[in-house]
Design a protein that fits this description.
single chain, alpha/beta, Rossmann fold, 3 domains, 6-stranded parallel β-sheet, 16 strands, elongated
């Protein structure tokens, strides 16, 4: 499953006209929230979604009407009774969308920007996409784009005034919500990146394999770690971002760091190795990270034994209280696939509490 950015890049490289719809703001009960995107091709084929129903149908109509001439417009859709009925919704709300159409001859700069954006997303790196608004003609306008990387370098034309560049450097656009702002009497659409969160799976056995599949379907970057190359390999984990074979689980995080696979608050750690000692080694190291979620498989008895050992080694009870163990939602899961569903469900629940998502 390719990212939406890769879908966009493919269209640009192949000269396929398309339109991109992005939710700028949402109020009330709406099917998707700010930052959600959808690509519409000339034959009506879709990549991504802004929620389905009549709202999406209206947006698709607008996208098709705007192709293939490169242009942009901002439209508001109010969920009146007709649109609510089409979405099977009770409550109302409204959406403001940016709709951009791209023709069959995109500029080299535009391709360069989306190529860099796709590369940065694959590496899990934060970026800010800048669209400078220009060429107003009635309700439509055009834009010119550039990309600001985490290190401050700019891909594409340098469109960024110093005040905006300083704001980006000060991390004022650290969320994922697009916004429109004025700088030096010029208008810019600012889109912080929506990089996939990273799931670190320690243990490449049956549950780890099924969990990696679930993670791929739910848009996580997945890193798999095990000490058995016959289990931890790219042929088995076809959709994993990285598969790492370690000699010692206790050194796993240090080895990942040397590969620039860093654990931060948008990282999720699942511990399900083949033995209690290995689980304990991974857990002890995981508690030193800033991971947004740490889960460990096993019974309460196993958990308590590991906790007692770590407490004696000086690990605080407060640190252990971060851990989700036994892991997963309580759905009476038994098979590896069912256990994987319970784990990914719990992670999605926790991810939804993260204000950056």
């Amino acid at each position: 499953m390719e990212s939406l950015t890769q879908d966009i890049l493919n269209c640009l490289n192949q000269g396929i006209p398309f339109a991109l719809a992005t939710i700028l703001t949402h109020k009330g009960s709406t099917p998707r929230t700010s930052g959600s995107k959808m690509v519409v091709l000339g034959d009506g084929q879709l990549h991504g979604t802004i929620g389905g129903g009549l709202v999406e149908a209206r947006v698709i109509e607008t996208c098709l009407d705007m192709m293939p001439s490169p242009q942009c417009q901002i439209k508001q859709f109010i969920l009146n009774q007709e649109l609510k009925d089409g979405l099977d919704m009770v409550c109302g709300g409204d959406l403001t969308l940016l709709i951009e159409s791209f023709g069959s001859t995109p500029s080299p700069d535009l391709i360069q920007v989306f190529s860099a954006l796709a590369d940065q997303e694959k590496e899990g790196k934060k970026t800010v996409l800048i669209s400078k608004v220009q060429g107003f003609s009635g309700a439509t306008f055009t834009t010119q784009k550039c990309l600001v990387l985490a290190d401050g370098s700019i891909i594409g034309p340098n469109l960024v005034p110093k005040t905006l560049f300083d704001a980006i450097g000060d991390n004022q656009f650290s969320g994922t919500t697009p916004m429109i702002q004025n700088y030096n009497l010029e208008e810019f659409i600012i889109e912080p990146s929506q990089t996939s969160d990273t799931l670190y799976i320690f243990g490449a056995g049956h549950v780890g394999l099924q969990l990696a599949k679930m993670a791929h379907l739910t848009d996580f970057r997945t890193v798999v770690v095990d000490d058995r190359s016959e289990f931890a390999n790219e042929k088995r984990f076809t959709h994993a971002h990285a598969v790492h074979v370690t000699d010692q689980f206790s050194k796993g995080f240090d080895e990942l760091a040397r590969k620039r696979l860093l654990v931060d608050q948008n990282s999720y750690i699942v511990i399900l190795t083949r033995g209690h000692l290995h689980d304990q080694e991974v857990l002890e190291a995981a508690l030193k990270t800033k991971a947004g979620y740490i889960g460990m498989i096993g019974s309460r008895r196993k958990r308590d034994q590991i906790y007692d050992t770590l407490l004696k080694k000086g690990v605080s009870q407060k640190s252990l209280d971060r851990v989700y163990s036994p892991i997963g939602l309580k759905i009476n899961s038994e098979t590896p696939a069912e256990i994987a569903v319970s784990i990914i469900g719990e992670i999605i629940k926790i991810r939804g509490r993260n204000p950056d998502n």
